[in-house]
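Lab notebook, design round three. We kept the backbone fixed and only want residue identities now. Task for the bench partner: fill in a sequence for the structure below.
Input structure tokens:
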């Protein structure tokens, strides 16, 4: 069984290849690809593999771009360090979605699913993620408690959502912070991705909050947000390229 791996992190690709050798020794990795550009070129000029392991965030963009330009019929198992790409859509329809670091048992389950799904469903799910047929409605306001009163905060007035000491908060444009009853994992699909971006596990920032960005260590970026004294407002290295693309839309 011929397999290709689309992954721009050498350590992650090595880890996956070692697990495959242990879990499914019948699989042969015929190519490792690091970019959208090389992925398109490979799939256009080589026989289609039996299975693709595809990181979502590659060196030059999102791997979804590949599958919008190249017709792929084989199974695709997505891998990523973040859980905000509609996991349920894949897990319930034969395409699986593995969070890094990939665990041996989850890899076994994914390979089992890949052997039984419809290739037509694969392409349909990939394209629908980037090109939804219906417009999604995002949350427009949040209720917060101020003393013994309840206040409604429009989402456009929120600069950042963040977690601190096992609770979630918002920071507003008028420099107030409020506790809210949602975890960040719950919040992410509620927010318009054109206006809000999850930079790491602790922060979801608005476009309006991204006015003071500094180059940081290990190819990362650091944000300074007025009123939040936290050195962890850092764009994770694997998210920097996507973050820059988001800013440049």
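Proposed sequence:
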């Amino acid at each position: 069984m011929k397999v290709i791996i689309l992954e721009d992190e050498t350590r992650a690709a090595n880890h996956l290849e070692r697990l495959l050798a242990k879990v499914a020794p019948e699989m042969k990795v015929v190519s490792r690809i690091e970019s959208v550009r090389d992925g398109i070129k490979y799939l256009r000029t080589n026989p289609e593999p039996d299975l693709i392991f595809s990181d979502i965030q590659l060196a030059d963009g999102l791997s979804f771009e590949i599958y919008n330009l190249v017709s792929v019929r084989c199974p695709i198992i997505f891998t990523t360090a973040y859980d905000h790409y509609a996991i349920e859509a894949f897990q319930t329809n034969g395409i699986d979605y593995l969070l890094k670091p990939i665990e041996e048992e989850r890899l076994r389950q994914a390979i089992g699913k890949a052997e039984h799904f419809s290739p037509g469903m694969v392409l349909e799910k990939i394209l629908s993620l980037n090109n939804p047929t219906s417009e999604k409605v995002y949350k427009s306001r949040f209720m917060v408690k101020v003393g013994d009163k309840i206040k409604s905060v429009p989402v456009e007035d929120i600069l950042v959502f963040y977690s601190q000491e096992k609770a979630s908060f918002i920071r507003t444009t008028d420099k107030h912070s409020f506790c809210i009853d949602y975890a960040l994992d719950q919040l992410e699909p509620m927010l318009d991705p054109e206006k809000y971006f999850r930079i790491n596990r602790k922060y979801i920032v608005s476009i309006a909050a991204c006015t003071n960005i500094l180059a940081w260590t290990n190819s990362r970026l650091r944000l300074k947000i007025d009123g939040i004294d936290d050195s962890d407002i850092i764009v994770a290295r694997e998210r920097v390229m996507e973050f820059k693309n988001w800013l440049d839309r």
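Keep this in mind before ordering anything: The two ends are 40 Å apart (CA to CA).
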